[in-house]
Write a structure and sequence with these properties.
single chain; 135 residues; mainly alpha; Glycolipid transfer protein, GLTP; disordered N terminus
């Protein structure tokens, strides 16, 4: 359900990117690109954390940052991000806050993460199209 509602909202943006007003199209494409980078970072961090049950969130998010967002940040932002990642909660605390039944939490996290990864992949496909690539 979440995926469907987000997907239909993205369709509005796709229509605007085809606009004859190139400044609006360029702005929307840039905003979507940065938004998608953030979603990709989140998806990769959580996927890594789920796939490595003994890994702390700080390490998962740090590794994901290194392969997703780091190349777009200057030295100042990299430093701020490094400090912010140290504020991640402990894995045990994080998953306990999501629910008592950890089997159910894992199932729901897998479903949510699968939908997020689908959105990221779709958006990356959009950026490989000629209309988006020219900006």
């Amino acid at each position: 359900m979440l995926y469907l509602s987000i997907h239909s909202n993205y369709n509005v943006f796709f229509v605007y990117t085809q606009s004859k007003n190139t400044s609006i199209a360029k702005l929307i494409i840039t905003l979507l690109l940065n938004h998608n980078r953030g979603l990709d970072f989140t998806a990769q961090a959580l996927r890594r954390n789920i796939s490595n049950p003994s890994e702390e969130l700080t390490q998962s998010f740090s590794e994901a940052y290194g392969v997703t967002l780091k190349k777009y940040h200057n030295f100042l932002v990299k430093g701020v991000f490094s400090v912010a990642l140290k504020a991640c909660p402990y894995r045990k605390d994080f998953y306990e806050k999501l629910g008592q039944d950890q089997t159910k939490v894992h199932e729901q996290m897998e479903a949510w993460l699968g939908a997020l990864e689908k959105i990221v992949t779709e958006m990356q496909g959009f950026y490989s199209t000629s209309s988006a690539a020219k900006f």
